[in-house]
Amino acid sequence: METLDIPILSLAVAFILLVIPVAISVRYGLGMIKPLFVSIVRMSVQLALIGIFLKYLFRWNNPYVNTGWITVMIMVAVFSAVRSSSIKIRSIFLPVFISFSVATLTVVFYLNTFVIPLDNVFDARYLIVLGGMLLGNSLRGNIVGISSFYKQLQTDSKHYLYVLSLGASRREALLPYLQESVQLALKPTLASMATMGIVTLPGMMTGVILGGASPEVAIKYQILIMIAIVVSTVTSVVLTILLTERVCIDKFGILRADVFRN
Amino acid sequence: MMKASNKLIEFKNVHLAFDGKRVIQNLSLRINKGDKVVISGKSGSGKSSLLSLVLGFIQPDRGDVLFDGVPVDEKTVWAVRKKVAYIDQDVSLGTGTVQGLFDYVSNLKINTHSGMTLIELMKFFHLDINLFLKEIRQLSGGERQRMAIVTAILLKRNVYFLDEVTASLDKHLKKKVADYFISREDSTCIIVSHDPVWLDNSVVRVFDFEEKKWRH
Q1: How far apart, in whole angstroms, are the C-alpha atoms of residue A241 and residue A147?
Q2: What is the DSSP string of A188-228?
Q3: Among A146, B39, B124, B204, fewest CB within 10 Å belongs to which?
Q4: Which CATH architecture has domain B7-94+157-214?
Q5: CB contact under 8 A, A251 and B93
Q6: Residues of B whose CB is below 8 A from A168
Q7: pLDDT tens, residue by residue, A141-187
């Protein structure tokens, strides 16, 4: 199966479809036209740039450059995850960075070493693309995980203090909040996995098939990527909570007010 | 020769401010083992902060808080919390069923309780045994308060911090609760309350939180 390239002009024709959401927005006064176009433009520009960038990244395929780029990707993911919580970025940047790196890189290198028959585990095509996929999912999980963990501790603070007064250890007192946050963070991933192939035909598979691979190969990659996503999401959410908790909760077991943004 | 100390809790020149507002200024206060102390003062004056200081929920800006002769700090506070039974003003028992709460409490490493005493105590405080299967949020204010009291007693600790524990009880039960704690000779009780039911006897000492001195 050949990959059918899309001529640039034809791609422009795809943009004509946007007339539909614009018309709907006008008809129902959704006020969505500006945010829609901002997002469309951002998406197009970012992808165009990354397309060019990846072309060179694949051409050079230099382990150092690849490692450098994945570090940048992790840093951006960490910033977005922390920014969506109510905690100051400088308080927990490092613990979240460690959590994301450990969770993503362990899984990617495991796959690149033991599952995909690669000569070079730093191969950009696998390191960057797989890493990005896992990071994106970890990010989604962590946005839910961190926010819910600390928000619950804040809104439930009276009960949390009561539990401490009962003589609970730090671990015992925090465990219910950890459990709830991790379960919450993992729900979307588990739900989409359970309906995969029937309801969701995942982006990666669509891309691989359209890109010319056979469905059999696409499915094998998809199974592999879903396992990797679950493993790295659970690991990163739990690690993030465990590592940030050491910073955000003092030695008395009390949430520190000074790590939160006002 | 050192005399065995009778002191249980001591505040030494304690200063505490909240959001720039002075709550406690240069407070020194000593509570002995077996004392029954009522902390009295207007609501919102920060009386409860005395209990929070001993439990390490807040730290003084200056001064020391001692428990059993040891300063309460990030290391010792965990042991202090295992010696005190605390009932907070809002009776924050959490969510889930009453049974779930007891299971949780008795599963904490430090705690053990026997089923017999639980049922006896519930009867003693006029609580229907069927409450056990209810959701905590279905309980009335008074029922929640008494459940918290039962929980605290089951912890079998010698020190009780009781923050407004009689607020939503009727006259008869208020008396019952107050008498129960005041008559426990071996227990130390610090009671934050402006309920006159606690003052009806000669054992209790009253500390005026606003004047910062013993009333009698």
Answers
A1: 10
A2: HHHHHHHTBTTTB--HHHHHHHHTT--HHHHHHHHHHHHHH
A3: B124
A4: 3-Layer(aba) Sandwich (3.40)
A5: no
A6: 108
A7: 999 999 999 999 999 998 999 999 988 999 999 999 999 999 999 99
- CB atoms under 10 Å from CB of B107, counted, come to 11
Residues A42 and A93 in one domain: no
- ipTM of the prediction: 0.87
Cβ <8 Å between A156 and B94: yes
Residues of A with CB under 8 A from a CB of B: 156, 158-159, 161-170, 172, 250-254
Task: Indicate the pTM of the whole model.
Answer: 0.83
What's the one-letter identity of residue B66? L
Question: Residue B77 is nearest to which of A159, A166, A252, comparing CB atoms?
Answer: A252
B82: nearest CA in chain A? A167
Residue in B with minimal Cα distance to A159: B92
The mean predicted confidence, pLDDT, of chain A is 90
- The domains of chain B are located at 7-94+157-214
CA proximity to A128, closest of A191, A50, A181? A50
